[in-house]
UniProtKB/TrEMBL annotation:
Superkingdom of the organism of origin: Bacteria
Region (Disordered) residue spans: 139-159
Record-level GO BP terms: fatty acid beta-oxidation
Domain MaoC-like residues, every copy: 152-261
One MF annotation (Gene Ontology) recorded for this entry: (3S)-3-hydroxyacyl-CoA dehydrogenase (NAD+) activity
Protein's UniProt name: 3-alpha,7-alpha,12-alpha-trihydroxy-5-beta-cholest-24-enoyl-CoA hydratase
Species annotation: Phytohabitans rumicis
Domain Peroxisomal multifunctional enzyme type 2-like N-terminal: 20-123
Pfam families in the record: MaoC_dehydratas, MFE-2_hydrat-2_N
Protein family (similarity comment): Belongs to the enoyl-CoA hydratase/isomerase family.
Length: 275
């Protein structure tokens, strides 16, 4: 059985000692499209850290494709996609620092023709719940899991902003540690069912968070208390993201689409903010 929920759910994964420097933060911001006019992101003096930097702290320095060696899980990398990401910020990340992380398989959901593996990672700075979508491995009679739908209000968004990507962006983002060949190798992408390498979902996630911070939160990343989103479509390097934002009390509802194809990219996204 490729996924054995009885073994997988609750299984502890190896903890990690995390460390990062201003160089790592600067590189991350540049891979999201930060510009020379945004010194708070690209210059170490008075450097501010986007909260989504948390999602790469566990892969910094990695030079091999991500491993899927987990208790009760025996699946191919080519059959997986990033399904969603939920980040809870406990305290702002400093420009350089260390942390200890502990991880576990929080749940496994049966979606019929597919499965979702939820991996939870906790540090003093943040908690991440990452959903890994596994094609063709559902149907084992497990729990379907909660709905992640967060439909936007039935009105025009309060803010819309455009974020261009560029042809080499996935190649740059890989330097943050995600060496999945899906984002660089056309043959591997074809094997996975795509006409070309795709942009990392977490790169899209970071770009959208940055767009919200810059346009709605006065460029202040420390106001972000959390950010959750579902990856509802792929982005090809060179396409343009359209981020639509609705204000709703102490949170922002967010949706991102690909301009050129009018296709979904990030949906059911909620960014919670401090007052």
């Amino acid at each position: 059985m490729p996924i054995d929920p009885a073994v997988a759910i609750g299984a502890e994964l190896p903890g990690r000692d995390l460390s990062w420097t201003t160089t790592d933060v600067l590189l991350y911001h540049l891979t999201l499209g930060a510009r020379a006019t945004e010194l708070r992101y690209v210059y170490e003096r008075d450097l501010t850290v986007l909260p989504t930097f948390a999602v790469v702290t566990g892969t910094l320095g990695e030079t091999e494709p991500p491993a899927l060696d987990m208790p009760g899980v025996d699946i191919s990398l080519a059959s997986t996609l990033h399904g969603g990401e939920e980040l809870v910020v406990h305290k702002p990340l400093p420009p350089s620092g260390t942390a200890q992380s502990r991880s576990r398989i929080a749940d496994v959901y049966d979606k019929g023709s597919s499965a979702i593996i939820v991996i939870e990672t906790v540090t003093d700075y943040f908690t991440i719940r990452r959903s890994v979508f596994v094609r063709g491995e559902g149907g084992f009679g497990g729990d379907r899991g909660p709905s992640s739908r967060v439909p936007p209000p039935d009105r025009a968004p309060d803010t819309v902003t455009l974020s261009p990507t560029w042809a080499e962006q996935a190649l740059w983002y890989r330097l943050c540690g995600d060496r999945n060949p899906l984002h660089a190798d056309p043959a591997f992408a074809a094997m996975a069912g795509f006409p070309a390498p795709i942009l990392h979902g977490l790169c899209t996630y970071g770009m959208v968070c940055k767009a919200v911070v810059d346009t709605v939160l006065d460029g202040d990343p420390t106001r972000v208390a959390g950010f959750s989103a579902r990856f509802s479509g792929v982005v090809y390097p060179g396409e343009t993201l359209r981020t639509s934002i609705w204000r709703q009390d102490d949170r922002l509802l967010v949706n991102a689409t690909v301009v050129e194809r009018d296709a979904p990219a990030l949906s059911d996204a909620v960014l919670t903010i401090h007052g």
